[in-house]
Amino acid sequence: GGAAAAQERRRADIMRTWNNIGGLENVKEALLDLVFPMLVPPQKDNVGYLDGSKAPYYGGLLSNPPGVLLYGPPGCGKTTLVRALAATANARVLVITPSTLLRKYVGETELQVRALFSLARKIAPCIVFVDELDGLFRDRGLGGGGEHEVNRDLKTEFMQLWDGLQQRLDDASTSSGGAGAPQVLVVGATNRPFDVDPGFLRRMPRSFFVGLPDWHGRHSILQSMLSSVPLAPDFNLEAIVDATEGYTPSDMQEVLRTAALFPLREARKQAAYSYGTDKARNSGVAQKEHMEGHSCPPAVPTNLGTPPLRPLTTDDVLRARIRVAPTHLGQAYCSALAEYARKASGG
């Protein structure tokens, strides 16, 4: 009973996490395909093998790729997708940033990288999430001049251990259909895929473009963000969707936060007015009682808690949209990203 209820709650939480990511249906489907082998690993008996033999599970075609790349403009949901992926697979996530691996003294950076992959194998199923991939593994030909020795050693050590991890997976898949293979998936996220070292891109054969949401995507995102917000009866969600074209999910969230300030300020002013009125009234009483020789306690606000807020209106959000500009994406950046996406999709 208790275990079944906990499992049902977890399933509901996972569904809610994916539903909170508006749009990107093709990307979500592809990521769920990737995580499925981590959910149902092949067993050591003959279940799932072809013809009852010891051949790899489904011919080895469903084994995870060496790595997955998520790329696109900032604030479009790449990190949120990784969180949802980890929750679905019930996998731990190791988030890698430059400060995680880079060290000042010679040899310490390589030790950090070895410790990372050792830990990933021990706590599998695990997702190694390299955020801002272009900052940590930048193309060696960019920026002019020679590459720093620490960065070069970091890349070499990381790629060797990454290849070793994949070799273990391939060996286990060949010998036992995947049983005993380390369930570790490396996922990289970047805003600038064209700046990433080609050696890393080759190890990420699956790449997914996470771009600005379209009309239906924005509708789904806003509907999710406003699901627990009290709205006016005539709230026009479609008008908000139309007005936020070109906005990232992060931008839309900032618009709604700014819009919520309007009801808050009205309630705050009303509370201050009520306090001022009570204070003036109490001051008059205090003066009268002072003349009669009695004491009176000082005036205090009539409402010490959170003031009640009116429902959010369409006008609140439209006013906030004027104040919150969308993330600026330069023309050169958009052109380079579109060209990379075209090449990555085989166009």
TrEMBL record:
Region (Disordered): 291-311
Presence of keyword Amino-acid biosynthesis: no
A cellular component annotation (GO) from this entry: mitochondrial outer membrane
One Pfam family from the record: AAA_lid_3
The entry's keywords: ATP-binding, Membrane, Mitochondrion, Mitochondrion outer membrane, Nucleotide-binding
Residue ranges of domain AAA+ ATPase in the record: 64-214
Subcellular location: Mitochondrion outer membrane
GO molecular function, one term: ATP hydrolysis activity
Membrane-related topology note: Single-pass membrane protein
Protein name listed in UniProt: AAA+ ATPase domain-containing protein
Organism annotation: Trieres chinensis
